[in-house]
UniProtKB/TrEMBL annotation:
Organism: Candidatus Desulfolinea nitratireducens
Catalytic site positions: H361 (proton acceptor)
Region (Pyrophosphorylase): 1-228
Binding site residues for Mg(2+): D102, N226
Protein name: Bifunctional protein GlmU
Length: 447
């Protein structure tokens, strides 16, 4: 039996008050619809069909070939939206799983359970409900005396008694495809001038068929995003879900509420993540590290037993046993070898620091390679930019760069060389040599 997913993403999301289509707003670093796609993809057989309309081009550009797109030119309701997929799917699938791109917390486990229920029963559809004291404008589930679902009543059409019903429609369904396409033709026009997908329930019951339902246990799954308040709830729900998974795999979090971890991040066992820490993008962290507090790491690879305190790292690589911070900054192309120590107010960009190199205080190292066991004194700067081009600085091993040295690139400093405090080095230095002094003097007039 073949199952295909339809994801509804055509709505405008007016209440977000945003230039950006609602479904592209981020939840834990990924667009909201990415989460809906992931969950659907993993339980269905074919590439999901996404119904787009508002901001269609932007949505297409973000999703790429992870979905097949069908444009709903006029937004005439959820029933009408699903109908747009008929020409793509009719005859090509046995079951149709319908969900919305604005429900990023529904899990593949839930979808799987719905599909299983639908396969095991003869009814035309299985729907998802939640029992909640907060109705959130969701449709109310009307049940018959025998407990079976009779209808879904949308809030604007509900009577006062119906409004009090605590069982709500989550908005995810698994349909028998053959039945669905015919039923969509028979949906009546609602008083609001829309074709409601929810009316398929009433149609099935009128025809004497039984509608299956699955009730969610975890209310977080049913968070649907219509406003920025809901968006923050989705973010918080997803954040805790991600953090719990890491904790179950052996990562300690002092305060998981304040730890923000992207969907693609990997963290090794016995690493401790301190409060107010952001791990984003394609970041990989080894085992036994101490990260944070107050640290932002984006697209980095970090070895084992590293300690990073109050620092900002981007597109950098740290080998094992590196310790850095507080207030260190790594930019793209920074590579710190095993055992490097980097103290406060340092910045490294496009540079390699060899094993056990030390850079304790206030330094800028850019476009440089630094040998093993070399010490970079406080205030050292690689003057790598002449206003037009970047130049390289190569420093050998076991070098001692005195405090406040200016290294004017291009420049090579030999192994075990030393520079005196405050030197301005403009010429290459041979191995085992001490240089001192400041050669600054007028050499040219600018035109
Ligand atoms: C819908 C359900 C409601 C349920 C709620 C759960 C209907 C009529 N009502 O209400 O019972 O409790 O979801 O969140 O289905 N969309 C389109 N094209 C359209 C209209 C909507 O693609 O013409 C998409 C929207 O972008 C959204 C989804 O369908 O992703 C749901 O539409 P929305 O207008 O938000 O429906 P609700 O009023 O929330
Ligand atoms: Ca909605």
């Amino acid at each position: 039996m073949k199952t295909t997913s339809i994801i509804l993403a055509a709505g405008q999301g007016t209440r977000m008050k945003s230039e950006l289509p609602k479904v592209l707003h981020s939840v834990c670093g990924k667009p909201m619809l990415w989460h809906a796609l992931q969950a659907a993809q993993s339980v269905t057989d074919e590439t999901p069909v996404m119904i787009i309309g508002h901001g269609a081009n932007q949505v297409r550009a973000v999703v790429g070939d992870a979905a097949r797109f069908v444009v709903q030119a006029e937004r005439l309701g959820t029933g009408h939206a699903v109908q747009q997929a008929e020409s793509t799917l009719k005859g090509n699938t046995d079951l149709v799983l319908v969900s919305s791109a604005d429900m990023p917390l529904l899990t593949s486990e839930t979808f799987n359970e719905m599909i299983r229920l639908q396969k095991e029963n003869d009814g035309p559809m299985t729907m998802l409900t939640i029992i909640s004291d907060d109705p959130r404008g969701f449709g109310r589930i009307i049940r018959m005396e025998d407990g079976n679902v009779q209808a879904i009543v949308e809030e604007p059409q509900a009577t006062i008694e119906q409004m009090a019903i605590k069982e709500l429609n989550v908005g995810a369904y698994c349909f028998d495809a053959k039945w669905l396409w015919d039923a969509l033709e028979r949906i009546p026009l609602s008083p609001k001038g829309e074709y409601y997908l929810t009316d398929t329930v009433g149609l099935a019951v009128e025809a004497g068929m039984k509608v299956q339902s699955l009730t969610l246990e975890d209310p977080v799954e049913a968070v649907g995003v219509n406003t920025r308040i809901h968006l923050s709830e989705a973010e918080a729900g997803m954040r805790l879900r991600v953090n719990r998974l890491h904790m179950l795999k052996g990562v300690t979090m002092i305060d998981p509420q304040s730890v923000h971890i992207g969907m693609d991040v990997e963290i090794g066992q016995d690493t401790v993540i301190h409060p107010n820490t952001y791990l984003r993008g394609e970041t990989k962290i080894g085992a036994g590290c101490e990260i944070g507090p107050n640290t932002i790491i984006t697209d980095c690879t970090i070895g084992d037993r590293c300690e990073i305190l109050s620092s900002v790292l981007e597109k950098a690589r740290l080998e094992d046993d590196v310790d850095m911070g507080p207030f260190a900054r790594l930019r793209k192309g920074a590579h710190l070898a095993k055992g490097v120590h980097m103290g406060n107010f340092g910045e490294v960009k496009d540079s390699y620091l060899g094993e056990n190199a030390k850079m304790g205080h206030f330094s800028y190292i850019g476009n440089a390679t630094i040998g093993t066991e070399t010490n970079i004194g406080a205030g050292t700067i690689t003057c790598n930019y002449d206003g037009e081009n970047k130049h390289l600085t190569e420093i050998g091993k076991e070098v001692f760069i005195g405090s406040d040295t200016m290294l004017v690139a291009p420049l090579k400093i030999g192994d075990r060389a030393r520079t005196g405090a405050g030197s301005v080095v403009t010429k290459d230095v041979k191995d085992d040599t001490l240089v001192v002094g400041m050669p600054a003097r007028a050499i040219r007039k600018f035109k």
